[in-house]
Amino acid sequence: MSDNPLLAMGQAAREASYQMLGLGAKQKNALLQAICQQLRQHEAAILAANAIDMAAAEQAGLQGAMLDRLLLNSDRLAAIIADIETVIALADPVGEELESRLLDNGMRLSRRRIPLGVLGVIYEARPNVTVDVAVLALKTGNAAILRGGKETLHSNRALLVAIHDALATQALPKAAVQLIDNPDRALVTALLQLDSHVDMLIPRGGAGLHRLCLEQSRIPVITGGIGICHMFVDQAAQLDKVADLVVNAKVQRPTVCNALDTLLVHEAIAPRLLPALATTLRGLGVELRACPQAHALLGERAVVAGPEDFSQEWLALVLGVKLVAGVDEAIAHIRAHSSEHSESILTDDMSTAERFVNAINSSAVYVNASTRFTDGSQFGLGAEVAVSTQKLHARGPMGLDALTTYKWIGQGHYTARS
Question: Do both 111 and 58 map to the same domain?
């Protein structure tokens, strides 16, 4: 037996990627349609498997964000299928000619998009990622090796059955999408060392998982998905519109990476804005962690923020609140505490907005909009494989283009280099 139990899986994935490489857009879209059909046909089995995972997670003491991410129901499965249909409608980037020029020697030189090859994706209690990654990988002609968390084991197995049945209907290899369904953590380390067969590694989870991958992987790693997201309310903002955006960013779905974590408020408008806003947020179950100046305005509606509270991704109904003297102090705070995921400014002063946009280095920056838009579907990319906060290869929601690379093609006339 091989010392690396994933070697055969990697070899099979590589071979499958060669078969996927030869598929045209119509064939790949037919495959994605088949996945939609199989997910509908397997709905009862998928939800039953998820119920097993949910019961085990609750018994193990999981709560809040983890349980919300783990849950599948009919509505969420329908949303997953809708995201697949969105991906089907998107143009296939593979084969796209990025540029072309005629050299002085008469050779035509062009760049053409091609699949990356084999993707390795490690994620935690998010069964939707199993489908999202598989669909985006297959649409771009890639193969994928998936490793979900032990909390999602039964859900992921059931989802994989549907995906494999879809591949079979199109006479394509099941190895195009594989799942490491053994919870042994040693297999994660083994995957990180599989550079002979895996071309890109994408972790989706907490800071610990990202750190592990960066420290131990031999494979290029795309990091991101950890959100410490900020919204700055400038003195030139329309105060009657602030509450709706703050509530949307914080309350709509607090357990996701693009939810709001810290609200920065210009000190000149804080006495008019914060008390009523705090009452609204408290009524929605939001706990406020306020700097001393903000706490002086809010009293019992908030608690004094601790030393680490402005460096937290809450993933819960908790919001940091801090007063700042202006846009420069807001920018300095964000630079000190942000994970470079998503930030927003509310203002009608476009020069202030432009200063904010130019100075903030996050993967998504908004003017007069919620941070909740940092999402592949909202960006028109389909369901993203991850949200990247790094600066090489891809940034922000990673859709189809981010799962491709390119090659140079030179077309000569029996041209020799002089």
Answer: yes
**Among 90, 83, 77, residue whose Cα is nearest residue 38:** 77
Q: Give the separation between CA 148 and CA 71, rounded to whole angstroms.
A: 14
CATH of residue 246's domain is 3.40.309.10
| Residues 174 and 272 grouped into a single domain | no
Residues 299-302: contacts with CB within 8 Å, 24+ apart? 301/275, 302/278
Q: Let me know: does 308 contact 262? Beta carbons within 8 Å.
A: no
pLDDT tens per residue across span 13-36: 999 999 999 899 999 999 999 999
Strand partners, 8: none
Give yes or no: residues 405 and 323 share one domain: no
Task: Provide the whole-model pTM.
Answer: 0.84
| Domains identified in the chain, total number | 2
Same domain assignment for residues 316 and 237 = yes
Q: Are residues 48 and 193 in the same domain?
A: yes
Claim to verify: residue 201 and residue 294 sit in the same structural domain? no
For CA atoms 49, 55, 56, 57, the dihedral sign is positive
Q: Which of 82-86, 233-237, 316-320, 379-383 has the lowest mean pLDDT?
A: 379-383
CA distance 136 to 333: 36
155-205 tens-digit pLDDT: 999 999 999 999 999 999 999 999 999 888 889 989 999 999 999 999 987
Q: Are 408 and 400 in contact (CB under 8 A)?
A: no
Count Cβ atoms within 10 A of the Cβ of residue 106 and give its class: 0-12 exposed, 13-18 middle, 19 or more buried.
exposed
Q: Coil, strand or helix: which one is 407?
A: strand
Residues 217 and 264 in one domain: no
Domain housing 304 = 229-373
Q: In angstroms, rounded to a whole number, what is the distance separating the alpha carbons of residues 224 and 228?
A: 11
Q: What is the rounded CA–CA span in Å between residue 373 and residue 258?
A: 8
Per-residue DSSP letter, 224: B
- 238 and 216 in a common domain: no
